[in-house]
Automatic annotation (TrEMBL):
Residue span, HTH arsR-type domain: 1-96
Keywords from the named record: DNA-binding, Transcription, Transcription regulation
Domain of life: Bacteria
UniProt lineage: Bacteria, Bacillati, Actinomycetota, Actinomycetes, Micrococcales
InterPro entries: ArsR-like_HTH (IPR011991), HTH_ArsR_DNA-bd_dom (IPR001845), HTH_MetalResp_TranReg (IPR051081), WH-like_DNA-bd_sf (IPR036388), WH_DNA-bd_sf (IPR036390)
Protein name: ArsR family transcriptional regulator
Gene3D superfamilies, per database record: Winged helix-like DNA-binding domain superfamily/Winged helix DNA-binding domain
GO molecular function: DNA binding; DNA-binding transcription factor activity
Pfam assignment, any one: HTH_5
SMART domains noted in UniProt: HTH_ARSR (SM00418)
Amino acid sequence: MADIFGVVADSTRREILRILLERYNQSSTAGGELSVSDIVDKLGLSQPTVSKHLKVLREAGLVGVREAGQHRYYHLDYAPLEEIEDWLIPFLSVDFDASAEEAAEETEGLKEEQRAFAAAIGKAFADTSFQMAHAVKDAKPRKWRKND
């Protein structure tokens, strides 16, 4: 059996699963079945391409198939999706918004500290600049050459 995560990593296979899920939600009497040709029409891909993806999904147990003559009708099988759900639940239970708010508060505190530090540096620079300007202004010119 293929790794389920590898199977659903392909965007075309995810799209097939989405189409089968929509069908299941729309019509409970048909058992959510769609023919290969219906799936081909919805995806706009070639029939061999869709069939190859359906084979991978079938081997992974994500879809079931019912044969009627030369036609094949596919439906979604939820059981293997529980493995994905079990893996995802810890990630879904984390409150990322709260973590983001805490990070924003820490960043805001850091910004305030940075502003205070920048203001202190700016004040020190201004004081030094003022003192230097007065020192240069008050300085008397010197003769640097002996002959001047």
